Amino acid sequence: MTAPAVLVVGATGTTGSRTAARLTAESHRVKAASRRAAPVAGAEPVRFDWYDTATHAPALEGVDRVYLVPPVGDPDPAAVMLPFLRQARAAGVRRAVLLSSSAVPSGGPAVGLVHQALPGLFPEWAVLRPSWFMQNFTGDHLHARGIREDGTVRSATGSGRVGFVDADDIAEVAVRALTDDRAPDTDLVLTGPEALSYDDVAAVLTEVTGRPVVHHRLTQTQLRDRLAAEVPAEFAGILAGMDGAIAQGAEDRVTDTVQRLTGRPPHSFRTVAERELSSAR
C-alpha cells in the first residue's frame, strides 16, 4: 500500500520549496502543489490554484497532511481557504500546518481567521507565525530589488526592530510540525537569534556585499502608495500598517522556537547574508 503523501501548497515559493525539499530528503512522499505544477526534485508535481476549485480534489487525493501557504496578496484568504480545508478534512487529511505571520494573531485580520478555525477542523495542527523573512533582502522581494537597483531599503519601520528569521529555519520547523509523532497543536512564533532595525540590516548588507546600502525611512502613507503599485490597495494598506506596528515595537522580540523544534539555534542575519550574497562582492 502506498504511504500517504504530504501536500505542500506553494511548493515553488520561499518556504514551500524548502519544506518540500526537506521532506523528500527524509524520504517522505510529497505532492508539490503549484499553479503550473512545476517540477520539484523527488516530489510529485500537481496543479493547484486557490481560486480554481477543480484543482483541489486531485491535489488532495492520497494525502493525510498538508502544508498551507495562503494566496499571496489576498486580504481575505479565509474565503477560499476555509472551503478547501473542510474539503481536505473530508478527504482524510488529519494534520494541517499553516503559514501565518508573527504580526497576525488567531482571529486577527487576513490569515488570522484561518488560524482561528484550524483547531476545529483538524485533530492535529500547527500554525507557524514567523517574523519577517531574512530572504526579503536577498531574493525577489521589493526590498531585495531596491538593494540591487540603488542600494536602498525603504520602510516605514523607523528605528523599530524585528527578529528576522531565515526561511531555511522556517522550513525545518515546518517539517517537524508535519512529521513528528505528535503535532504541536499550537501556534509557533519563529524568529532569528536577534532583533535588528532596518538600519542594522543595511549596515550588515554593506559589510557583506562591500557596497553601500542605506535605509530610507518612509511614512506609512508613502509606503502604502509605493506598495499599491505591486499589490492590491487593501493589502498594501495592511502591509504599511505592519511597518507602523514595527515602528512602535510590536516585533522587537526573539523566541527559542527554532531551537526547541530543530535542536539547533536559528541562523543569524549575517550568516544568511554571507551565504546568499557573498558572491555580490
UniProtKB/TrEMBL annotation:
Q: Which InterPro entries match?
A: Ergot_Alk_Oxidoreductase (IPR051604), NAD(P)-bd_dom (IPR016040), NAD(P)-bd_dom_sf (IPR036291)
Top-level taxon: Bacteria
All residue ranges annotated as the NAD(P)-binding domain in the record: 10-105
Q: What is this protein called?
A: NAD(P)-dependent oxidoreductase
